[in-house]
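Working notes for the structural subgroup meeting. M.R. asked for a predicted model of this chain before we commit to crystallization trials. I am recording the input and output together here so anyone reviewing the notebook later can reproduce the run.

Input as submitted:
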Amino acid sequence: MHAQRYRKELVGFDETARDRLLQHSFPGNVRELDHVIERAILMARGSHLKAADLGLTSGGGESKSLEEMSLEEVEAFLIKKALARNNGNARKAAEALGLSRSAFYRRLQQYGL
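Returned structure, recorded in token form:
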């Protein structure tokens, strides 16, 4: 569902990503899992979802885990990653995130990016 929405052709999860999903407790239940999968699909580069795409920490890391972030923090993080993956090209980053350029630029301004 998310892969079609974001026009990504994915085969599945790599082994590390599967292990990370199985180890995570998902206190937010199905909704949290859905958000993690959607985020991973947005971040994916290639045909397999990787553990880094999931945004789940492996315990005690310095970065916040997805469930500890606000919606705004997650959105700003995804925008930064999309820009980085597209070498600062806003048009390509907006396209990768499924946003119009105007919506993308509004978010850049909103988050001070």
